[in-house]
Design goal:
By secondary structure, this protein is of the alpha/beta class. The chain contains ten helices and eight strands. It has an eight-stranded mixed beta sheet, sandwiched between helices. Helix 1 links the parallel strand 1 and strand 2. Helix 1 packs parallel to helix 2. The chain is elongated. The protein binds uridine-5'-diphosphate and magnesium ion. Magnesium ion binds next to loops.
Length: 315
């Protein structure tokens, strides 16, 4: 077996404390696999514009173990772009994205590979716990999955992260998608294929801190919804029609009432409510339109998803 079997892609951004322990724990696990993958694997780090010693660490790792290689971005492009780059670069017949913080236990890789050998194209990890996330994060994540799966045809499995095994076939499909807006979980869901899940226990982050704040998560959520569905655009015509219908009925009522009882001067409150309500709706729908137009602009510009500044290892 000489062809590359398994590629791990590991996005890293300012993770100098995490890359060493990661390699120490993961390499023996991969070597211990009862599978041809044990002899032909690579660990591909994607340095997403780190400003600390991460890159130096990656170089040192590559010097001691050429199965560990890396590409380094010219700046921070975000985790989704890093994953895209990983999929572009990875050579394996199966590819597994994995966070460097070891919150997702690499021991599960063995199970994933076994399922893959059984013939599954996608084996995604599902957490059996979410205690490692704060309560607000859990609630917002939950809300997001519900909203996403309610409005989109391509359901994303709940409690599944980016930790999953992807067969080469799936990787090529994802790579062939031309869009700039890359909400990975949405792309995986859209691609379909024969999927199965393995469950695992998510641990606390041991070194470093989370790189996601609520602003980043909110942006990710909007990216996810807008790339998965156009329902937020269409819903306004129905709502508008409904409101217009109500307005006609109300207008008839006012005409009849005026004819029967004469002109009534008071009406300030109801007028204000109607104006504010409709003004709010108008702005909201314009805002939604803006979200989509902005994304069209990004797509049309067609800039590269990421820029590689340096390659460590590989040929
Ligand atoms: N990450 C990245 N670019 C970013 C943000 C995060 O490459 O802009 C990487 C990070 O180094 C880590 C992974 O994505 O390997 C997941 O990040 P983190 O553990 O902070 O997210 P959380 O587990 O808190 O959701
Ligand atoms: Mg993490």
């Amino acid at each position: 077996m000489s062809a590359m079997q398994l590629s791990l892609i590991v996005p890293v951004m300012n993770e100098e404390a995490a890359v060493g322990p990661f390699a120490e724990r993961v390499v023996p696990i991969l070597e211990g696999l009862a599978d041809p993958a044990a002899t032909a694997f690579e660990i591909l780090f994607v340095d997403d514009g780190s400003s600390d010693a991460t890159l130096a660490q990656l170089k040192a790792l590559n010097a001691t173990d050429p199965r560990i290689r890396a590409i380094s971005f010219s700046r921070n492009f975000g985790k989704e772009a890093a994953l895209s780059a990983g999929l572009d670069e990875a050579k394996g017949a199966a590819v597994i994205p994995l966070d460097v913080d070891l919150q997702d236990p690499p021991e599960v890789i063995g199970e994933m590979v076994a399922k893959w050998r059984e013939g599954y194209d996608v084996v995604y990890g599902v957490r059996d716990n979410r205690e490692t996330d704060s309560l607000p994060k859990r609630l917002t994540a939950d809300l997001y999955y519900r909203a996403h799966n309610w409005i989109s045809r391509d359901k994303i499995p709940e409690h599944a992260g980016d930790f999953r095994l992807l067969d080469r076939r799936v990787v090529e499909v994802i790579r062939s998608m031309p869009e700039r807006n890359r909400f990975m979980k949405g792309l995986f869901a859209w691609a379909g294929f024969k999927q199965t899940a393995v469950s695992y226990h998510r641990e606390e982050r041991k070194v470093g801190r989370t790189k996601f704040n609520y602003v980043k998560l909110w942006t990710l959520a909007i990216d996810g919804i807008t790339s998965a569905s156009t329902l937020p655009l269409r819903v306004w015509s129905y709502l508008g029609g409904f409101v217009a219908l109500g307005a006609i009925v109300y207008a008839l009522f006012i005409v009849v009432r005026t004819l029967a009882f004469g002109i009534e001067v008071p009406g300030y409150a109801s007028m204000m409510v109607a104006i504010l309500f409709l003004g709010g709706l108008n702005l909201l729908s314009l805002g939604v339109l803006g979200e989509y137009v902005g994304r069209i602009l990004t797509e049309v510009k067609g800039r590269p998803l990421y820029i590689v500044r340096e390659r460590i290892g590989g040929e």
